[in-house]
Amino acid sequence: MAVTYEDVKAAAAVIKGKVVRTPCLYSQTLSSIAGAEVYLKFENLQFTAAFKERGALNKLASLTDAEKACGVIAMSAGNHAQAVAYHAGNMGIRSTIVMPTNTPFVKVEATKRLGADVVLEGETLVEAQATAERLAGEKGFIFVYPYNDDEVIAGQGTVAIEMLEDYPDLDVLVVPVGGGGLIAGMATAARAIKPDIRIIGVEPGLYPSMTAALCGKVAECTGSTIAEGIAVKNVGVRTLDIVKELVEEVVTVSEARMEQAIYLMLIVEKSLVEGAGAAGLAALLALPEKFRGQNVGLVLSGGNIDPRLLTSVIMRELMRDGRIFRLQIEVPDIPGQLAVVTRVIGDAGGSIIEVAHQRLQLDISAKNTTLEVMVETRDRSHIKEVKDALTSAGFGFTMMSDLSGKV
Fold this sequence. Notes:
43% of the residues lie in helices and 19% in strands. By secondary structure, the protein is of the alpha/beta class. It has three domains: 5-51 and 150-315, 3-Layer(aba) Sandwich (Rossmann fold), CATH 3.40.50; 53-143, Rossmann fold; 321-399, ACT domain (Alpha-Beta Plaits). The strands form three sheets. A six-stranded mixed beta sheet has the order 1-2-10-7-8-9. The chain has a four-stranded parallel beta sheet with strand order 5-4-3-6, with helices on both faces. A four-stranded antiparallel beta sheet has the order 12-13-11-14. Strand 3, helix 5 (79-90) and strand 4 form a beta-alpha-beta unit.
């Protein structure tokens, strides 16, 4: 294969002291939840909050002085963009980044702050790449690919070296997969250090690109995923060859599982991860039988999540946990009814977060109105107490939250 363990070790020497040697820590609580011994590699603690710095720096360091003088260009949904912009700036290299138009605002602004010229064009990474390649040809920029590049792959592989230095007894590494640069580099290093270690990749169910490529098929990628950092339609040719050789399996996870994983990382580890960074934990939650009783290393690949998206994830998980629910209550449209309803809910221990009158519903009497109420509760059993209190007070209601079950 084009990338060797010696390449990864050389990359480790190149980036030493220039990127953070992030901690790899045991999680007692997540281990209990998952039924496995879980070790977390906190790549979200890099300066740009993602592992991409490793490969970007290794690639930039390999350029000749003449190439550096030309400037560099990259396409990225955010993390690779920030990594290239940051390290190019540190090395005095001009950088231009092409990002899809739907890239989260937080990532666009962060890239600009790091000194890059940002071009927003195309709805997908494929379209952004076409623009970047065109600009590279027109202006003579050196293209820094996010994954389909030997120096980038070698740089990403340094994550595995550090994890196995800290915990040599790891049985399996669970790695987020987009274009494949991280898993290809990590597999190259890990299998050289410990030949019997298992490598399992994880990608969003809406973008099963590596899964399809391993079967010689073209992936059907549809919809919007919370893991936009690994929402890649076309994996790297160079990474695919390595994955075929060294990776045991690539699994897919649902959006709900990734939301759950983001939430757990926040409340259990007090650590912020983006959708891609949560993919490994999502796989443990969705497929516990694959990992039960084993020493599992998870890569928290990034922490650049849009604050508005994070707010939505938290609220959705609170609803899944039964900590928040919505209901619609029909009441006579006379003064004082809202006060009665709020008193009943309050006496039952519920806290009203939001309430709205809906007087134009045509399927109820013109003398009645409906109240749409969002209520905070302790747990699912407390929801039943609030519902029983409303029933005892003579109020009819309809549940607006789906409480049929968790993910």
